[in-house]
Specification:
about 475 residues; alpha+beta; ten-stranded mixed sheet; about 50% helix
């Protein structure tokens, strides 16, 4: 079997979640010689508990004081995944307005989502009036309303302990600095009347150094994020059994509601006590996992207990057997290489150093200033391509519905701009070359900024929902607005 169609048993995502069943036909990646980048799972509890409703009847009945229209909900812990330790609550929630009937639900694991602490769900909607639809699921998160909520999160949430958020913020700030740099070096060529003394040399030089340094810091954090990904995988959703009317009295039947659950997330992104590495699983969650009658396999238990929760860099064995076959790691490595070489051009852009190089010779300027831009920009190009490919099912099929693909695309455009600037640099004495080089920095900086802002949005959109083809009425397509 090809490498991209199967996981190493010790690296299989969600291997310790006995209730999640891997759908092997959906395990794939863009290249046969690299690790899979996506896989689908089904939750076995949906079929198991539906086939044994009597196990719920003794505890799910309501008291006489319960309102007639109340709903009894059985919660199955998504992280423990065994469904034996159940809690109950009564009463309807505002969040139910966000539900839609669904005929099928699958969990989609993607390598990029795993690094970023995200949990993707694939929902097949059912007709809104279909009483036999077995599931209640959230609506897709690509609507205008969901996008507006995502923008609101960007303005109101500041998870400074989350390395993925820090990476996005740092690259956004770095891109803003480069946009300012581009105005310093390009605007005087467009309108010489706007130029002020030392604008290009001092303003441009210092912003280039600051921007390159910020990019280097962001690239280091990006690499730390890549080598400290959640190796065991994280489900991140909770299943609730909803009983209404006659079903409530009998304690059987009903529907399954799938809800996003930060409380059971095992990614390090939710743990405020560490930067990367160890997840934050609540004590009650650990209790649920302990009290279940179905025990995880010895292999999974041993793997979890011996895995490191933090590492600066993988071992030679892990590099050889796993990371050098991991598209996301290779993309981060290319980014770090490019940023490190590119930083040299930022350092030599400092006014005193740059003036000394110009006075020395054109060859010295080309070798210490322009060449690092070309080499570093090439690293950015490779990184952008690999980040795009990581989100694609096939190397030749674009993935425009995936946020990570757009991030890679805009970073690729920005990388071409920075590389073009370096390539035109040796001919900087020519007025046309100087103009085009500065212009390339201008549009390249804006492209990096767009990609960074999308990445900022992505890291806070932790529970994306996609929809496959299915029928819905207009009522389902337009849920009620929350107050």
């Amino acid at each position: 079997m090809k490498r991209n169609n199967t996981f190493n048993p010790l690296r299989e995502p969600l291997r310790s979640h006995s209730s999640l069943e891997l759908q092997n036909e959906h395990t794939t990646g863009p290249f046969s010689f690299l690790n899979p980048t996506r896989a689908h799972y089904r939750h076995s509890e949906l079929s198991k508990l539906n086939s044994s409703p009597s196990s719920l009847s003794s505890t799910s009945s309501t008291s006489s004081s319960t309102p007639a229209d109340a709903t009894t909900t059985t919660t199955v812990d998504g992280a423990a995944g065994n469904g034996q330790n159940e809690t109950y609550r009564k009463g309807k929630e505002d969040e139910e307005d966000e539900d839609q009937p669904a005929s099928d639900i699958q969990y989609q694991w993607r390598s990029r989502d795993n690094r970023k602490g995200r949990h993707a769900l694939i929902v097949t909607p059912a007709p809104f009036d279909d009483a036999n639809a077995p599931y209640l699921a959230p609506h897709k998160t690509s609507t205008l309303r969901a996008t507006a909520q995502g923008i609101k999160r960007m303005l109101t949430q500041y998870p400074y302990w989350d390395v993925s958020w820090l990476v996005a913020i740092i690259f956004t700030l770095g891109s803003v600095v480069w946009v300012i740099n581009a105005f310093f070096v390009w605007l005087p060529l467009v309108d010489p009347a706007t130029e002020f003394p030392t604008e290009i040399g001092v303003g441009g030089g210092w912003t280039a150094f600051i921007g390159a340094t910020i990019f280097e810091i962001g690239s280091i954090l990006l690499m730390l994020e890549a080598v400290n990904e959640n190796r065991a995988g994280c489900f991140g959703w909770a299943l609730e059994r909803v009983l209404e009317g006659d079903n409530e009295e009998k304690g059987e039947g009903g529907k399954w509601r799938v809800k996003a659950s930060v409380d059971v997330c095992e990614h390090h992104h939710t743990n405020k006590k560490n930067f990367v590495g160890k997840g934050d699983v609540p004590s009650d969650q650990k209790s649920n996992a302990t009290n279940t009658t179905e025990k995880p396999s010895t292999e999974a238990t041993t793997s979890q207990s011996t895995e490191k929760t933090w590492q600066w860099f993988p071992s030679a064995y892990d590099l050889r057997t796993h990371y050098f076959h991991e598209l996301g790691f290779l993309a981060c490595l290319a980014q770090l290489f490019g940023a490190s070489i590119f930083w040299i051009s930022g350092f030599t852009a400092l006014p005193a150093i740059n003036t000394a190089l110009i006075d020395r010779s054109q060859g010295a300027l080309d070798g210490a200033y322009w060449a690092p831009q070309i080499i570093g920009g090439t690293g950015f190009i490779v990184s952008g391509i690999l980040f795009m490919l990581e989100t694609q099912k096939k190397w030749y099929l674009p993935a425009p519905t995936v946020l990570g693909w757009h991030i890679g695309l805009w970073n690729l455009i920005g990388a071409f701009g920075f590389t073009l600037c370096g390539a035109l640099g040796p001919a900087y004495g020519n007025t046309g070359a100087q103009y085009e080089a500065s212009l390339a920095t201008f549009w390249g900086s804006w492209a990096f900024l767009i990609g960074s802002v999308i990445q900022w949005y992505e890291c806070l959109d932790t529970h994306p929902v996609e929809e496959t083809k299915g029928e819905k009425t207009m009522a389902a397509a337009t849920p009620k607005s929350s107050s």
